[in-house]
Amino acid sequence: MLSDLRIRLRALFRRHAVEGELDDELRFHFDQQVEKYVRSGLMREEALRRARIEFGGLDQVKEECRDARGSQFLETLAQDVRYGLRILRKSPGFTSVAVLTLALGIGANTAIFTVVHAVLLNPLPYPESERLAILGFGIGNEHRAPASGYQLEQIRERSRLFEQVGGIWVTNSVVPGEGEPEQVRLGVVTDNFLSLLCAKPAAGRLFMREDAQSNVPSALIISYSLWQRRFGGDPGVIGRALRAGEGSITVVGVLPRDFRLVFPDDSNVPLNVDLFVPLQGDFSKPGGPSFIHTIVRLSRGASVAQAQAEADEIAAQLRRIDPQLVQDNFSIGVAPLHDDDVRNVRRTILLLFGGVAFVLVIACANVANLLLARSGARMRETTIRAALGAPRSRTIRQLLTESIVLGLLGGVAAIAVGWGALQGLLALRPESLLRLATLRLDVTVFLYTLAISVLTGTVFGLVPAFAASHVDLIAGLRGAGRGATPQKKRSRALLICAEVALSFALLAGTALLVRTFISVLRVNPGFQAKNVLTFTTSPGDYNFVRELQRGLLTIPEVQSASLVSHLPLDDSHGNWYDAYYPEGTPPAEQSSNLADSRSILPGYFATIGATLIEGRDFTDADDAAHQHVAIIDDALAQQTWPGQEPLGRKLNISDSPKGPYQFERDWVVVVGVVKHVQYHSLTTMVRPQVYVPYQLAPRPVSFVVRSEGLAASLLGPIREQVAKLNKGAPVARVITLDDLVEHARAQNRFVAFLAVVLAAIALLLACIGIAGVTAYSIAQRTGEIGIRLTLGAQPTEILRMILSQNFAPVAVGLAAGLVLSMALAPLLQGLLFGVKPGDPFNYAAVLAFLAFVGALACYLPARRAARVDPVIALRYE
User: Fold this and answer.
1) For residue 231, what are the contacts with CB-CB under 8 A and spacing of at least 6?
2) DSSP of 512-537, one letter per residue?
3) Is the Cβ–Cβ distance between 199 and 231 less than 8 Å?
4) 296 with 135: CB under 8 angstroms?
5) 279 in Cβ contact with 169 (< 8 Å)
6) Over the stretch 475-530, which tens digit does the pLDDT of each residue have?
7) Fewer CB atoms inside 10 Å of the end CB: C or N, the chain?
8) pLDDT at 59
């Protein structure tokens, strides 16, 4: 076998040497046979003649030897490739158009496949990430709530299939130590959380169980970026004690450069966290706030279904221990971390991938039509091949090889197109697709591009190859084969139908997405975002925030100023929500309804431009020492007291009048009703809202400041006011409400923009295809048109005839596209807002537009044909 393989490889890679040896060997045997006949008494001329008869044709003998070596296929393939390149080089116009068309189709596929590969197919950047799962806890009608410390500890103790259980809570903090104050995100984590996601730190160590034993955090792990910008990458920072408040904290580790927290969007765990401290506290008793986002590593061999069954069993055990959990309808859900992370973007990415597939099919149809048109000019060549004995399969293989070479050339150009498209995607990506920052053209993407190029070349080359292989030898050799056969006409018509149908589907979907974005632009978020600046600073007591509010109001351009615990449309902070119920609610129903909880100071609604429907705003007297009060939104009022007056009613909620995070159930009196504010999404009302005075629920806050002019001009005076009260307090997360609204619109804008680009490419290719086929069919009928004009036909009649014949496949394509788009429209349901998938106006508008464009693409070449001079047409014929 090895000897045979060596011979075959030598015949392939040293072809000229092997061919020379074959010539020498055949010549030797031929000469030997001649000499044998001469020795037998024949004249040399007769000996030569008999030797030639005995040997047969030397070329046939060589072919048999090559077949025996097994390299004939590769040799002929190389010949076909060289011939195909020569043919393409001789037709630069055709080659340029075809390669550009394929580059657009394949390049768009390359770009979107890079997104699919990076977001949907690549595993998360964590050790054994396929075993990681996220836990969601059910409370009332909420199924993705965080866990309390007690629940997390109970799961750790009771689980057999969870190898590790870790959790995180993210808040704001100031970098400890000396220097300018800098506010960063702080992750409070269980001692094993980082070891779940990080195999080895860049420096130092990860947390150990001992780090979580003390009452005050004493160990700190920092991110690589903070290490570089704050400590200059100094290795000596490990073991250094940094001043933190009244005490100190020791840096024990630095995380790797590429470490990121890839969590679902609604988990409120940001991608980048700079500080990590261990979670501490006594979690041995039921109760306590639910704030820990929990991930687990499944035991080897354990499936998600098995883990879910165990989680259900643990939830049942906890309900038996804590009666409150029975009222809360407590449950535990298990989902693979990767699947949960991409669940909100999976449909969007797959639909875009389907859209670029449509564009690629349209590009293939265009190139196939070009090849069909070109096959007429090459009919004499294929006829001569057949006349010389070339089998039909050999002709098909030659033509397919040419089309695959063309596809590969398009694939090479597509790499540049795909790279440019990726840069555009990175520039336009919304924050919900931050993982797109890892996009790169890696080996997998190159292999995909190679495969799709070969497949594309095969697909668009099949129809022209089979059409060209059917030849009429007599007609072809006489030169009568340049006209279009009925089979070619049908093939071109079918390709046009496919282009129009796919373009219709893309345009219909794009129109729905664009109308969705327009509807999002018109949404009233419940506040007036213009000229409102927001910022955060170090958490302080009530006196600090109240004095800062008064100081902000002294700035000349400030109209109003206040604070809120959670800004509208800002997911950078962990959301707080809990159950609420009015008086007289049965215990079994007291956990059924959940509302977002917001802490505010007086003037918040006026500052953001929210509408106070009835009642009053908070005052300084609304503190823990007086009657506890709350303001609710109209959604909660309608849900709780439909058709009744809500003012003066009592509502049971969770607040913390004894201090930050010391939550307790409390009865509050409703003193005001405000219009619902969109805190989570512009298009969905997630939960109603309850507002309480800051004194009743102190927690990290964001200040909001409304100005008369440009809000950005207030930053300097704001820093001065903060420094007056606390020189070490940073001013961070400075952003306008306008920016937050734009961020909320970003994903809809991103999807609509990409859909418009794909639809525009598809429409352009379809128009080129229609116009090209029409122009080619007219060119074939130039003589016929000249005869008709000579015999008295009017130009308008010629125009009408050409339009009717060439618009027919467009009309069929429009009908097929209408059916196709109606079948695919439900796939867009989750992406639409303010418009229905089956909106008849949408289909009518797209149908009218495409019909006009198709008619125009047919009309322009038809008009030129109708104006042709009959003498010139007959002379051409």
Assistant:
1) 222, 237
2) HHHHHHHHHHT---SS--TTEEEEE-
3) no
4) yes
5) yes
6) 555 554 444 556 667 777 888 888 888 899 989 989 988 888 888 888 899 999 99
7) N
8) 65
Neighbouring CB atoms inside 10 A of 841's CB total 11
Using CA atoms, how far apart are residues 754 and 759, in angstroms rounded to an integer? 9
Q: Which amino acid is at 149?
A: G
Identify whether the C-beta of residue 599 lies closer than 8 Å to the C-beta of residue 694: yes
Contacts (Cβ under 8 Å, ≥6 apart) of 325:
286, 318, 319
Q: Which residue has the tokens 């009222």?
A: 327
Structure tokens that stand for 10 in this block: 């030598």
- Give all strands (DSSP E) within 260-345, no chain letters: 275-278, 290-298, 331-336
Q: How far apart are CA 812 and CA 497, in angstroms?
A: 6
Tokens of 590: 């007291």
The pLDDT value given to residue 389:
62
Rounded to whole angstroms, the Cα distance separating 190 from 213 reads 11
Kind plus residue range of the DSSP H or E element containing 347? helix 346-377
Size of the chain, expressed as the number of residues it contains: 877
* Ramachandran angles phi, psi of 122, nearest 5°: -65, 140
Q: Running along the chain, 877 residues long, what does each successive block of 10 average in pLDDT?
A: 62 66 77 83 83 71 62 67 81 84 90 87 90 91 87 93 93 82 89 93 92 80 93 91 84 93 82 91 83 93 94 94 85 92 85 89 84 66 65 75 88 90 79 65 88 87 68 53 58 83 90 89 91 86 90 93 92 80 87 90 95 94 92 95 93 88 89 94 89 89 89 86 87 90 87 88 84 70 69 76 81 91 87 86 90 84 71 57
Which element (helix H / strand E) includes 132? strand 132-139
Q: CA separation (Å) from 860 to 499, 719, 770, 799, 855?
A: 19, 65, 11, 10, 9
Instruction: For residue 383, give the H/E element and its range.
Output: helix 379-387
- Taking CA atoms, 167 is separated from 153, 298, 413, in Å, by 10, 15, 47
> Rounded distance, CA 169 to CA 187, Å?
6
**pLDDT on residue 398:** 78
- In the numeric block, which tokens belong to residue 141? 């009608």
**Amino acid present at 451:** A
Instruction: Mark 340-358 as b/e (b = at least 16 C-beta within 10 Å).
Output: bbbeebeebbebbbbbbbb
Q: E strands, 625-701, where?
A: 629-633, 650-655, 664-674, 689-693
Non-local CB neighbours of 819 within 8 Å, separated by 6+ positions: none
Q: What is the pLDDT of residue 871?
A: 62
With beta carbons less than 8 A apart as the criterion, state whether 438 and 271 touch: no
Report residue 560 as tokens: 């109003």
For residues 778 and 868, give the distance between their C-alpha atoms in angstroms, rounded to a whole number: 11
Residue found under tokens 């959990």: 325
Q: Which position has the token pair 């959940």?
A: 594
3-state class of 285 per DSSP?
coil
pTM of the model: 0.79
Helix axes 58-69, 2-13, angle to 10 degrees: 130
Burial class (CB in 10 A: 0-12, 13-18, 19+), 871: exposed
Rounded to the nearest 10 degrees, the angle between the axes of helix 346-377 and helix 443-469 is 40
Sequence-distant (≥ 6) Cβ neighbours of residue 800 within 8 angstroms? none
Per-residue confidence (pLDDT) for residue 750, from 0 to 100? 85
Lookup: tokens for 346:
């999976």
SS3 482: coil
Which ranges of 91-160 would DSSP assign to H, the alpha helix? 92-115, 149-158
Closest CA to 771 of 89, 97, 95: 97
Residue 260 Cα to chain centre, angstroms: 19
Q: How far apart are CA 20 and CA 31, in angstroms?
A: 16
CA distance 736 to 570: 11
Tokens of 441: 């053209």
